[in-house]
Design goal:
The chain is an alpha+beta fold. It has a 4-stranded mixed β-sheet. Strands 2-1-3 form a 3-stranded antiparallel β-sheet, covered by helices on one side. The model has no long low-confidence stretch (mean pLDDT 88).
Length: 149
Amino acid sequence: MKVILKKDIPSLGKAGEIKTIKDGYGRNYLVPKGFVEIATEGVVRSWKLSAEKRKKRIEQENEALNKVAEKISAITLSFSRPVSEDETIFGSVAKSDIVKSLKAAGIEIHKDMVNLDASIKALGNSEVEIVLKSGIAAKVKIVVTAHNK
């Protein structure tokens, strides 16, 4: 099945590309979600005609996301966690904690945008990458301090 990607799909390609995919993947997942459109002659022709409008819209989106990335880079998130007498931290800082703190700072992101392999389980400073879109990312500073009971 040939399809035109409406959105960037990390495992498949970028918006506007024509790809050949398995019928079931397209029919059962990509088409119902609105990620792709079946590439008939008429659809391909109209897609090419509207390419300039899409390009302008994508540039505007990228400009807005770059501004958000600058805001994220300027932020330092502080978390306080209880620790034992030997400085072992109880709990951790997870993706959801970072998302909530950024939301409190006026920046709404999805937790899948946070590039954190494992929760932060140590006191001190660290940086976490926030991927807003393919090619647009920012690093937020995280400070984890001790909270005595």
